[in-house]
Amino acid sequence: MAESWLRLSIRTRAASIDALSNFLIECGAPGVVLKKTGLDAFFAAPPAGASLRQDVNRFVDAMTRLSPRARKPRLRWQIIKQESWEESWKRFIKPRRVGKTFWVTPPWLEPPKFRRRRVITIEPGMAFGTGTHATTRGCMEFLETASERLPSGKFTALDIGTGSGILAIALAQLGATEVRAIDNDAVALEVARENVRANSAEGTVHLSGASMSAIGRRFDVVVANLTAEVLLELAGALEKKVAPRGFLILSGILHEKAAAVAGRFAARFRIRKRKRSREWVTLLLQRK
């Protein structure tokens, strides 16, 4: 265990936050906290700390050259002791409203009292999806819309690339009678199992490492928060999993690639809603 940690605080424009976050995770940050005006990233303080700083500075300089009119991000490095790491991390994780239905909260905090909202408890960990990222929020908002538009109010669902399990848990809370949640990452599945258990959704959410081709049925709602490239690669398989008049929710799509994704599904689906948050786009499609 590291005796001390490096905290990198970056203040920058909203459009740069996701690119910086992805780069810092690739650099080995086990924790990145997104904020409205930037982010905080944490690293185990290594002997190669100077090399890490050089890599980050080079990346920031390259970003600045690509957008010369934008103000250069401000970087602040700070060493924090091991005993203060846990509190330094946790104090930034707050309960968050998502859509009109949910509070998403870490397990160590009590969510605010709000009787009309459902609470999802998510342990921030190694799997993607804590309700803070624009793509996760977009999916949850469109899950609300889809559940309201299904005639019976009860439905089945498939969550592809479940990550932390947050979308599968949301589906269960919205009235799904069965949710199949799949992921090819063993770590993500383990995190998802813990989160499903913490939210008492074991009876509804069924987790597995199965591929889509191994699931021989259709669902009323299918959600895939992946990337534009993966969505295009899986398009044919995704189409086959959506029941007639069912909904397909796609996210993880950069704005400049949204038209290509929407166009690929246009023959069999209508676009019911489109949401953009910074550079990310989420699509709500309904099978014709």
Describe what this molecule looks like in 3D.
The protein contains 9 helices and 14 strands. It is globular. It folds into 2 domains: 4-90, Alpha-Beta Plaits (2-Layer Sandwich), CATH 3.30.70.260; 96-287, Vaccinia Virus protein VP39 (Rossmann fold), CATH 3.40.50. The chain starts with a strand and ends with a strand. The model has no long low-confidence stretch (mean pLDDT 87). By secondary structure, it is an alpha/beta fold. Strand 2 (31-35) and strand 3 form a beta hairpin. It has a 7-stranded mixed β-sheet with strand order 10-9-8-11-12-14-13, sandwiched between helices. A 4-stranded antiparallel β-sheet has the order 2-3-1-4. It has a 3-stranded mixed β-sheet with strand order 5-6-7. It has helices at residues 14-26, 49-66, 82-90, 134-149, 166-173, 186-198, 228-233, 235-240, 258-265; strands at 4-11, 31-35, 38-44, 74-81, 96-98, 102-105, 118-121, 155-160, 176-182, 205-208, 219-225, 242-254, 269-277, 280-287.
